[in-house]
Structure prediction request, 498 residues.
Amino acid sequence: MTSAPDAASTSTPESPFHTADFADLGPQFFTALQPTPLPEPHWIARNPAVAQLAGIDPQWLETDEALQVLTGNIVLPGTQPIATVYSGHQFGVWAGQLGDGRAILLGETDKGKEIQLKGAGRTPYSRMGDGRAVLRSSIREYLCSEAMHGLGIPTTRAMALIGSPAPVYREQPETAAVVTRVSPSFIRFGHFEHFSTRRDTHSLRQLADHVIDQFYPACRTGGAFENNAYANLLQAVSERTAVMLAQWQAVGFCHGVMNTDNMSILGLTIDYGPFQFLDAYVPDHVCNHSDSQGRYAFDQQPSVAYWNLLYLAQALLPLVGEVDTARAAVASYPEVFAHEFKLRMAAKLGLPAKSIQAPEFVELLQSLLDLMAQDAVDYSIFWRRLSLVVNGKADNETLRDIVLQREVLDGWLVRYRELLAAHEDPKAQAAMLTTNPRFVLRNHVGEIAIRAATQGDFSVVNTLQDILTTPFDEHPGQDSFADFPPDWASHISISCSS
Ligand code: AMP
Ligand code: MG
Prediction:
């Protein structure tokens, strides 16, 4: 190490992002602060595709500066990190002020993507929490963001995952990690509830105007409610939420904590905690060990989202004006959800969109779901095998193997083949293989990555990142990640503690 550093390495690189526009809204929306440093940070995984999407040079992710910045150990000149304030309903009850208790918004890129650290230390909104996230939950969030994106489901993204030996105390001592999340915005329904509850209509309007100007400009110029941009916003959010829920239900994704503070105003899946992709098809499955009432059971999710939208409507009422208008703005949710869900289930069945009009369609879908529920059939494996059967890559036996009531299945297959023939669409049939994933981030799959990472082996996290980004590909040699859950998986307990 004798040569002097060259010019490129001595010049201070410019920060890849600037203070988030959100900070322009005013001090009532956030607290300016510094992340709390963590010792000895190390990379676990990086996502150059997300860097690129955000307009950040992927090579920056290779630098020690990036490691320190994305751990929260240094703050780049010209950027002001902030934690935002929100409130919300948790498990059906008003929880009052919450806020970014462990999320810190570092800034925003020129491409309008916000860069947020999760687990970077306490904030004024941490309440009793330590502002940290443990390795296991951070691996789950990092991988699931990318898995959802790979499945084509709207979600916040993950750009980096960093670990540190610093201890974090949960039920037992664990170690700290920080996920860098990327999204056009992290604004939640709860941000609106916060200002509405305080009767701060001025701030409420500012927030709504910000969201409309940045993300829903069409609400100013058109929509069902003519000149009422706020009612148009409510309707647009309802529709995006309905589409997202249809996608969750179709793929078998259980969010686990659908509190209003975990609902994105952009209709993105946000805040991955005790989520689960269904193993067996159990419609009332509850994936969150802390959800003793089953409020967020899989089959409750669509109506919970509606409930949350009604609270958003209530929060926006001072801007919307009439109660009837607010109610009308969210009223389309059930219909949009039902329609979108049918479209997605038709696609899973290899049927074209128009087939959902056929009287047999709903009956056929329902009888399949009933059979799957009665026999606790593995949800993802059934759909994948059905795709292979329809596309001539496997035979009916592969389906009969995983069903108990085989005659019922046989009868169903006959009726299904009739509907397929009546609506013959080779493209839709072929598309089953890019609609029904071979790989989803089941609990046991995440757990394998977590166990290896806890031993210092991050290769499984990185392999899974690869696989889950392209979950419809075969990925030869990776069969174990597409397989049924092993017996030990039933003992995995996932709770809010993360
Ligand atoms: P969640 O259930 O993860 O959506 O979190 C609900 C609220 O608790 C949010 O305001 C979080 O910021 C906060 N929170 C959760 N875990 C922690 C933690 N370890 N430290 C500080 N705040 C937390
Ligand atoms: Mg949350």
